[in-house]
Amino acid sequence: MAGPERRPVTECPYVPADLTRLIEGDAALVRCPFPLYDVLREQAPVTRNDRLNAYVVTRYDDVIEVLKDTDTYSSAMASGPNSVTGLANKLLADPATPAKLRAQAERRLKLSESPVLLFTDPPLHKRQRALVSAAFSPKRVKALEPEVRRLTEELIDGFLADGKVDLVPQFSIPLPMTVIATLLGVPPSDMDQFKRWSNAFTAGVGSVDQSAEDVAGIFDEVDTFYDYFTREIELRRVEPQDDLLTDLVAARMEGEAPLTLDEILQMLVQFLVAGNETTTNSVTTLMFALAQDPELADRVRSNPALVAPLVEEMLRVEAPVQGMFRVSTADSIIAGVEIPAGSVLWLVYGSANRDPGTFPDPAALKLDGDRAPHVTFARFEHFCLGSSIARLELRIAAELLLERLNDIALDCPADEVPYHRSFVLRGPASLPLTFTAR
Ligand code: HEM
Predict the structure, then answer these.
(1) What is the rounded average pLDDT for all residues in the chain?
(2) How would DSSP label each residue in 18-40?
(3) How far apart are the CA of 385 and the centre of ligand 1, in A?
């Protein structure tokens, strides 16, 4: 890939202020955090950041060690202090919070008393994962393929004659959103609302400053989400349908309690957050790379067997989830740094994936031969439940976009492509492209 992330390990010293600027959403760093990661891995592989109130872990082997050890490193706070739950806690601690917002925050906190998947540890996590796995069976994923293909074709039809497109609103957002909504049985008429919910739940992930107005808006959306799906779940209990929601309601396991309403609601939030923005950003960064490298686009276009390795390498170098959080349950030591019990850790997957100790020439896309497994979908217990859905969408998107569009090029200078202001969910907010229809 072209671009500043090809720079070799920088020799300049690690400056803690740079990490703080990344966390505060500095535009240049959020867009390209990789040289900073290089310096961190070299000079401060485990470092405490006061702004984040967390230890930042950047080397591949250390990230793997933490992911493996679910006893010492709990997922109780996987999405960080500014997730909706984190915001709710802040609101309740502030005596100035108005009554309506206080009630909404309390509702949210009551639901987070039934943590699910991302935020749970074994043995509760094992029970939930087993119950939910049936709903994400290879059979259900396979059954999605024709719909993903149809939808991808339809989205391309929508802009093909124009010769240009802003890929984000016209393709990268609607594709995963419609797929996940289809999976949940949400009708197309409720799609706009569906996206507003997704935005509300992701707004706080990876940013540290929210205006009071933003927070109030987030909690209004969160409320309508819970009302809508409580109704839908009750409907499925009476009248089962062929969808994932019904699978969740019906999931049973010998000797284990079925999923409660609160657990199902919390799982839906996770599908929504984890399934939308992540896949959107992956599709966009993949096309951003192809638009900057016509030779690569031609190579893959003429050899579709390269689509899958291209998707995999793009997932590695441009991880849409740059890192997730853990909280330590006991004193521990990582890379020689003492971590007191109760500390928050930010595991920087985006850095681990470019660790030259594990991935030689880490910025290069290696389309032939093997690489070590990346950590874009994490590993072990919390390995992404939707990874096969995401891979399916990405493969079909890359295949059909390359098949139907020639001469794909950026419609603005590369450094003017705007990025979201999040240090966790990384990706372009807009991607103007030009092309010729094939
Ligand atoms: C490119 C797209 C995606 C990326 C990069 C991604 C990334 C991740 C990561 C990093 C984790 C582990 C979090 C941790 O370390 O604690 C995770 C978990 C999860 N993902 Fe994905 N994800 C993607 C797409 C999806 C999709 C399409 C769904 C579908 C609904 C999904 C559902 C989930 C769920 C439910 C979990 C929690 C699993 C558990 O804790 O047991 N993800 N994902």
Answers:
(1) 90
(2) HHHHHHTT-HHHHH--HHHHHHH
(3) 6
